[in-house]
Amino acid sequence: MLRIIGWSIIAIIVLAVLIIIIARVIHYFKIKIDPEVGIQWDGYYTIGGLQQYVQIRGRNRNNPLLVLVHGGPGEPFAFLSYAWQLRLEKQYTLVHWNQRQSGRTYFANRHQQFTVSFEALMADLAEVISTLQERYQQPIFLMGHSWGTAIAVEYLAQHPQTVAGYIGVGQMVDFAKEAEIAYDRAYHLAAKESDTDYIIELRRAFHNLRTKLRRFQHSPKTMEAFDAKKGEYLDQKTLWTKLKVGWLSVTSPLLTMRDLQWLLMEILAQKRYREIQAPLTEFMMQYHNSHYQFQIPVIWISGDEDYETPYLLVKQYYDTVEAPQKAYVELHGVGHSAFLEDAEQFCNVVIQQLAPYR
Questions:
Q1: Whole-model pTM?
Q2: Hey, which residues does 143 pair with through a beta bridge?
Q3: What pLDDT shows up at residue 15?
Q4: 94 SS3 class
């Protein structure tokens, strides 16, 4: 009996590996770009004295560039580009950049001493965009996601003439207010279920976080404890997205061992991961977006199930912004990672909103 069980487990593992290999091969040929007319390149630029990973994909090298600033801190998603951006690649050349202390950039520089700060990331982004301008001489649009939106809007405040437009996906506005809105929502849902024990634990976690913030003690561990507790009621969409991302990752033709190592570190070596991101996480916990005037078109996309960067707060922020052109788009049934949760709807919105500014 044990032998039969053993062989069955081996057979299941072999079948799973075969399915993954077949899926990766299919995806590889599906996303292949003709080098005569388009761009399909990935490698390292020397940025800020470091080797920083960049992925560039587009079907026509004469198209404008769309530079993506990933969230986290420390959550690059270049290896998932095949899963959602193929339609955008027909009209834009998409550029993914792994920030310092993230993904492949981290592994390329882990034996070096260098500064990790928000200001360093700002300088890196400026150098990335300058390098792209010199090499491709095409208009550049900027898209930030979550943590990346904080970097993006601060960059725009200092370099307003370098890009043609901005899209914020899951825009960060005010960390403390975002936590408060998430708390209220989780509390409301738990109260409807008369989940008294959960409410007590939620109150404790939120109280600890708020106390730390008021004392300017920016503890990533306290933040994570609150995130985990609120997530029991708010992260159903996020949980499904994580499962989906897991499958998309292992079947990605772009996934390398360095990407896999980074994902495993985030999951299995959380203490080390927290240490790496600590200076950036502490900055994020005290972040307040104070930029309300832009000199370029600005667009915000939010999911109506997003309680990481709550759409209600993004909408309030949008209402106060002054810009030559601005737009706010709310996607129904979508959480924090709209491009992965509903790629078709997301790409349609991006194409439609950017069309007047190409």
A1: 0.92
A2: 68, 167
A3: 77
A4: strand
